[in-house]
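pls ignore typos typing on phone
1-deoxynojirimycin + seq
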Amino acid sequence: MRKRLSYLLTVLLMCCVLANSSYAQTQAVTNNNRKWWKEAVVYQIYPRSFKDSNNDGIGDLKGIISKLDYIKSLGVDVIWLNPMYGSPNADNGYDISDYRSVMKEFGTMDDFDALLKGLHERGIKLVLDLVVNHTSDEHEWFKQSRSSRTNPYRDYYHWWPAEKGKPPFRPGAFEVDGSGWRYDSLTNAYYLHYFSYKQPDLNWENPKVRQEVYSLMRFWLDKGVDGFRMDVIPFIAKDINFPVITKKDLDENYNGGWDQYMASGPHLHDYLKEVNAQVLSKYNVMSVAEGAGVTAATAHKFVDADRHELNMLYHFEGVNLGYIPNRFKKMDPHGYSLIKFKQIYSKWDSIFEYKGWGTIYLGNHDQPRMVTRWGNDVPEYRELSSKMLTTFLMTMRATPYYYFGDELGMSNIKFDKIEDYRDIESINMYKQVKNNGGDLNEFIEAQKISARDNSRTPFQWNSSENAGFTTGTPWIKVNPNYISINVEAEEKDSNSVLNYFKRIVKLRKSDLAFVYGRYDLIDKANPDVYAYTRTLNHDKYLVLLNFHQHISITNIGFNVKGSKQMINNYSDGSLIINGKQVTLKPYQAAVLKIQ
Ligand code: NOJ
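k done
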C-alpha cells in the first residue's frame, strides 16, 4: 500500500515538473496555438525615408513598389508601414487629417492598391499603422468640433469650458510648455492633446467616435490589409472627469510616471473588446499594441487570447533602459547594464510563457539606430555588433519587429545643430530647454544618441548622390556613411550585415524551436555575455552574445563541445570552446545546436 502511494506521488510530482517544463512548451505548439503572426518576422518601413520615386526628396509608395524584390530578398513575412494617410505632417503622419486617403507626398490610392497587390503576390503581408488616440487638428471632425459648442462633432474630442477655470494638468509630450491642454478662443474652451496641439485626442467615450474608428478600420481591412499596429492604444481611454492628479498619486499608483496614468482609462478594455468583436475577429489579421505605459502587471489584459482583445504588444521597458531618470532622453554616461538588460528581456519572456505572445525590437522610428544605442558604431565594431544584436532579435521567443536599415547596420547621423532636425519632438524639447535656461549643448549631445531623427534618415541604396534615395533634395540629410554602408555594396559582400541578416532570418524559420521553444537564461550574473538556450522537444539551441568590445568568457553549465555551429558573426567561423566554457571575441555572436 505504502509502495503504491509513493509510486502515485512520484507520478504526480513528475506530471507537475513536466507541466512546468519543456513538455508544457511542446504542448503549446499545437495547430490551435500556432499562428502566422507568431512565426513571422516583421519589417518596418518608414515610407518617408525608404525610396523616392518622383525626386521631390520624400519617399513614396511607388518608391516602395520599385523595391519589392529587395524586400522579398530579405525573407521577411510582414511589412509594417508607418502612417501614409492624408496628413499635414506636424508629426510625420501621426497627425491624420483624412483616414481614407493617401498622403499627397506619398502618392495615390492606386499606388497603395498596387503596393498591397505587389506584396501579396510575393507572399508578404501588410500591416498599417492605426492612429486613433488623436487626429490632426486639420481633420474635418476637429474643424467641426471646434466651430461651436453645439456642433454635433463637439463630443468627438475632449473639451474643458474656460468658465470652469484652468483644467487640471495633463502632459502634452511635444509641447514647449509641456501642457496637454490648449486654449481655443473660438468657443472659449480648452481641448486635450497628449502629444502636440496639432494632435487633439479623440473622445473614445463617445460611441459615435468608436463607430467611426471601426468603420475606417473596415475600410482598410476590406482592401485586404493584414492588420494594424495600434499607436499609443492604451491612451485612448481616459477618466473624463479629469481629476487633479497629485505627485503623490502618481508616485504611489503609477510608478511616478504619467505614461502609466494616461494608459489606465477605466474603460480601456471594454473598448478593446469591442474593437475585437466588431472588427478584428471578422478578419484573419494581426494586431499589435504600442504598449506605452503597459507593465508586467497589465500586459496580459491586452493579449491573452481568451480575453479577445489584441494579439501582441510591445513594451518600453527594454528601450527605456540606460537613460538618466527625469532628464529628457539623456543616456547614463556609463552606458547600460547588460545584467539589467537580461533581466528585462527574461522577465518579458516569462510573462508570456504560457499565455499571450510577446514582441521583440531594439529599433523603430521612435528610437535611435539600434547599433549606436545598443551596440557600437565605431568602424571596427559596427558590423560585428549590428550582427550580434540581430542575432538576439532573431532568436528570442517573441515576434521580431525589425526596423528598415538595421539590416545594413545603418547608424545614427548625430546632428550637431538643431537646424538639421526635422522632428517636432527634438525641435520643441530644444525650445523647452532654452526657455528653462537649460544647457543646450548638453541637449544636443544627448540627442546625438537618442533623437528619433537618427533613425529617420534616408535608406542607403548605393553610393551615388543621396545614397540613391532621391535625386532631389532629401527632406532630411542622408548619413554621409552611405558611401560604404549601402545595399549595393552589401549585396556583393557575402560577409556583410545584410547577408548575415538574410542568413539568420532563414535560420529562425528553419526550426520552430526559435519561435516556440522554451527560453532559459544561462550565466545570469555575467555582465558581458548574454547566453540562453531555446528548446523544443529534442531540439536545443545555444545562443551566445558578447555585448562588449573585449574578450569575454561565459560558463554554460553543460558541455558545449561537439555541438553544431549554425551561425557565427565572425566570418572565419571561429569559436573558442573549452568544455563548458566558451570564450567570445568582441561582440561575437554564435548559435549552436546542442547534439
Ligand atoms: C507613437 C508614434 O510611434 C510616434 O512616432 C508618435 O509621435 C506618437 N505616437 C504620437 O502619435
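Residues 91, 94, 131, 195, 231-232, 290, 365-366 surround 1-deoxynojirimycin (CB under 6 Å). The chain is about 30% helix and 15% strand. more later
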